[in-house]
Write a structure and sequence with these properties.
Elements (H helix, E strand, L loop, with lengths): L1 E5 L4 H13 L4 E6 L20 E5 L5 H8 L5 E4 L6 H6 L2 H20 L4 E7 L24 H20 L3 E6 L1 E3 L8 H10 L4 E4 L5 E6 H14 L5 E4 L4 E3 H12 L6 E4 L14 H7 L7 H14 L1 H7 L2 H14 L2
Parallel strand pairs: 1-2, 1-4, 2-3, 4-5, 5-6, 6-10, 7-9, 8-12
Antiparallel strand pairs: 9-11
Helix pairs in contact: 1-7, 2-4, 4-5, 6-8, 6-10
The structure holds nicotinamide-adenine-dinucleotide (NAD) and thymidine-5'-diphospho-beta-D-xylose (TDX).
Nicotinamide-adenine-dinucleotide binds next to helix 1, helix 4, strand 5 and strand 7.
Amino acid sequence: MRVLVTGGLGFIGSNFILHMLETYSDVSITNLDLITYAGNLENLKDTDRHGDRYQFVKGDIADRNLVDDVVSRKPDVIVNFAAESHVDRSILDASQFLRTNVIGTQALLDCCRKYKIDRYVQISTDEVYGSLGPSDAPFTETNDLKPNSPYSASKASADLLVRAYYKTYGMDAVITRCSNNYGPLQFPEKLIPLMITNAVQDIELPVYGDGMNVRDWIHVMDHCRSIDTVMRKGKTGQIYNVGGSCEHHNIDIVRLILTKLGKPDSLIKYVSDRPGHDRRYAMNAQKLSNELGWTPLISFEQGIEQTIKWYVENEPWWRRIKTGEYLTYYEKWYGSLQK
Ligand code: NAD
Ligand code: TDX
């Protein structure tokens, strides 16, 4: 199987590529990635040992000519991870979110159609459904799309385009919508790696609002296995929710990280809330488990332990990232949240 992965230098894409190369000897991967601030060549330095089963192309999914050239090599399947993925950055400026997440998806879909690619997989998110109240049932695939941030609005727009290409042109396309991922190689702007690395650095841990927002956590390898399953066995035109059935309040996650690292709670700093902050996400992934037989394998206790250990052991990886562009962003965003 020849797979074109986009955005494979980011957190989930690079874990997915490593999973595919290590699990199957008959899979080859081309990775198209723009190397934005979130893309890191170091994430895939271990692909050397897979020889010509892994190939990298630097470029923008919104660059039609380039996408046409890459897709004309006729992969069997395209898996689109490439996106601007951080809600807070979308609040500061949504422009790049629309270009990559919407226009980029359209360019991929058009080329997929032109070259009659067998299958297109769109990696989407639980955030397209909006926010739940404390006693609401978890999201199912039939929930309305009610995105609340520029990021989630751009992801919902991409999902609607995928649906339209399936309906209008009969393209073979599937969508996965996953809850919050954590694990090795996650960019330290996201909650879990930010809190781990700030705690190691003995700098304050910024908690938005009252810290009582709820996220449904899943280990990145369980997410990668679900994508592999949907890519191979998913029914055309279908949407599959993916989740860990593992809801936690943000503040509990932050306290757990501090305890595991032997750091004091006094490092916690409550800051102003994220504008439009979704209160709760929870996913019902019954369709995926009943129809395709997927279930998550990694418990949160195991996964968070392994993740903290990974960041502690890979300090040079995140120290290099927490400089330059990242610092400019950090100061601008957290400066705007000081109470
Ligand atoms: P990430 O920000 O870590 O990585 C994104 C990757 O896409 C980077 O390598 C970046 O260089 C690349 N990229 C960005 N713009 C590009 C462009 N125009 N052309 C080519 N490459 C480009 O993101 P992630 O956390 O790995 O998320 C991957 C996908 O999964 C995204 O589509 C995201 O919406 C979705 N998702 C993420 C989560 C999560 O918890 N992180 C949960 C559900 C869904
Ligand atoms: O400094 C922080 N303080 C804080 O309290 C940060 C960065 C986050 N938070 C809160 C906001 C959220 O309630 O933690 C929660 C998680 O925040 P993020 O890590 O930014 O994730 P979230 O906004 O939930 O979105 C994530 O899950 C769905 C990913 O970033 C998306 O790409 C994915 O689609």
